[in-house]
Amino acid sequence: MEGVAAIPSAISNVAHLEDLLSEPPPAAVEGMRRLDGDIIILGVAGKMGPTLARMARRATDAAGVSRRVIGVSRFTSPSQEESLRRDGIETIRCDLLDEAAVSHLPDSANVIFMAGRKFGSSGAEPLTWATNCFLPGIICRRYRRSRIVAFSTGNVYRLTAAGSGGSVETDSPQPVGEYAMSCLGRERMFEHFSREWEIPTAIIRLNYAVEMRYGVLADLARRVHAGEPIDLTMGYFNVIWQADANAIALALLEHASSPPLVVNVSGPEELGVRETCETFGRLMERSVTFAGNEAPDALLSNGSLGRSLFGNPRVGASQLIVWTADWIKRRGPSLDKPTHFESRNGRF
């Protein structure tokens, strides 16, 4: 992930943030030069999708390759769709659970699957299961001649002891709660059809992508800035700069295989909630109060395999903490989507 423009000391505004999140590292440009065919991103209107689509477009253009980059979503925000189009991404409105509509989507040699349901799962479990488990079958049937990179989550793992290095890809999944179980179901559907139809597939177990408007760091910083007590029970976590996660997703198109390659995508640091919030307090000149004590285990992922394939993240956790503190102190915009990372019972 190294080798892009110099890392700034602060992120000035949303335009600057969006530019950084979609800036392709040289490896992504070279990957887009080698890759054949178009790229279609399913579920592009989520938290990561727009910047990933822009990175694919920018890397393709920098590589001098002619390629369609297509984003598919229901697009409940017309302004978001218009913004993607201005940046050279074709957009298609589609309910991906409508199999007839999916059958009319354009062919594409490369598929990035980002559709999923997490927040609001409690109380709407049938829709969560349909989105996370039935939908992958629809997509595999439609794109059985493509290569697929599918987003999943570290929530499929059990909680692991702090300081142990976190779960690795060969660990047996032990999901807690219906959301996490449905995410394992999503993986199993992609695995089944990858084996059955020899679809080259890669599965990303993400834990956790962050940027200034969203993510675990933003959640904690806002609570510190507001003077709210910080619950320490889920006392440890991993993060990765969203731009680094975007670059890995694009790179994995070349590594897709049958059976699927499964890769944890997370930063190398195991962060403590207590220490992170104390740092936020110093940077934002706020006192910090805590509630409870750290449990001995947490949802932690070991991203060594991904780093062996793609190198270290360009932006480390210490820089992310500084950026986030500055953004929150200046009351920068928020996506208003709390992560609820502190949940230990799997309810979202």
Relevant CATH superfamily of the domain at 14-207 and 242-268? NAD(P)-binding Rossmann-like Domain
Please name the CATH topology of the domain at 14-207 and 242-268.
Answer: Rossmann fold
SS-based class: alpha/beta
Helical amount: 25-40%
CATH architecture heading of the domain at 14-207 and 242-268: 3-Layer(aba) Sandwich
Strand order in the largest sheet: 3-2-1-4-5-7-12
What's the helix-strand series?
HHEHEHEHEHEEHEEHEEEHEEHEEHH
Task: Give the C-level CATH assignment of the domain at 14-207 and 242-268.
Answer: Alpha Beta
Determine the mean pLDDT.
95
Low-confidence stretches: none
Structure annotation, total helices: 12
Q: How much of the polypeptide forms β-strand, as a percent range?
A: 5-15%
Largest sheet: 7 strands, parallel
Evaluate the radius of gyration.
Answer: 19 Å
Distance between the termini: 32 Å
Shape: globular
How many strands appear in the DSSP assignment?
Answer: 15
